[in-house]
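Lecture notes, continued. The same structure-token format from the folding unit now serves as the input rather than the output. Read the line below as a description of shape only.
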């Protein structure tokens, strides 16, 4: 996918000083500090310096996905030359918002399965980018947790229901993995901070011996709360990214 975008890079460079770029993310700037630093470093290596020969309009949904359509509409009104849609919710919202402005996505889901591109080799349309296919890693995390806790027979998987495409695919794959491992799996939902507290109360109720936290912008925004709750309730947990462990989870 990256190769196709490079094929258009010469035209984009000529436009660098004539139009803004849009950067959209479903999370908050605070939770994406490392990724944002890498984004700016990549721009610099490609000859772009924000505020000098290119202007980047940053927009953050702060975990509220319902804000994304309005954010995209604002950027389209500004006639940005390209939209960098980082995170699956942002990519889906960008795809729905425009078929003409180039979209470069960075996400953890499968862009083909989500209908964002026709294929990885030939994405077509106005969307290209990169994906870590992180959705498929949730079953592996369950397996790793099971290997660490071989006597535990009851596990839980936490998803964010406001990301339906991600939640459904992750839940389906993790349920299948749990059956293969002979585990009893409970899929729990959380879309607010109060839900997180309720989830850990539920874990105690069902006597779950481990928790797999699914990939979600909301969970990334609340990594510290999730880590603190896991420690408070002494629930072994495995997460999608480093910040959770760094926060003590």
């Amino acid at each position: 996918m990256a190769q196709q975008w490079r094929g258009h890079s010469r035209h984009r460079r000529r436009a660098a000083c004539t139009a803004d770029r849009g950067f959209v993310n479903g999370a908050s700037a605070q939770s994406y500090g490392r990724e944002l630093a890498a984004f700016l470093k990549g721009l610099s290596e490609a000859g772009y310096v924000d505020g000098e020969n290119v202007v980047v309009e940053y927009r953050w949904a702060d975990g509220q996905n319902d804000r994304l359509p309005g954010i995209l509409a604002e950027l389209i009104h500004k006639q940005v030359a390209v939209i960098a849609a980082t995170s699956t919710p942002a990519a889906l919202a960008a795809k729905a918002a425009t078929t003409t402005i180039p979209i470069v996505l960075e996400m953890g889901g499968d862009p083909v399965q989500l209908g964002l591109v026709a294929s990885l080799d030939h994405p077509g349309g106005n969307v290209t980018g990169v994906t870590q296919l992180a959705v498929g890693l949730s079953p592996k995390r369950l397996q790793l947790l099971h290997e660490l806790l071989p006597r535990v027979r009851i596990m839980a998987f936490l998803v964010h229901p406001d990301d339906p495409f991600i939640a459904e695919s992750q839940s389906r794959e993790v349920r299948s993995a749990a059956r293969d491992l002979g585990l009893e799996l409970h899929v729990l939902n959380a879309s607010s901070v109060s839900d997180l507290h309720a989830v850990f109360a539920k874990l105690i109720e069902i006597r779950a011996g481990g928790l797999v936290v699914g990939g979600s912008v909301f969970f990334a925004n609340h990594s510290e709360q999730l880590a603190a709750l896991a420690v408070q309730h002494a629930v072994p947990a495995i997460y999608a990214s480093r910040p959770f462990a760094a926060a003590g989870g």
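Point for the exam: The CA atoms of residues 26 and 64 lie 7 Å apart.
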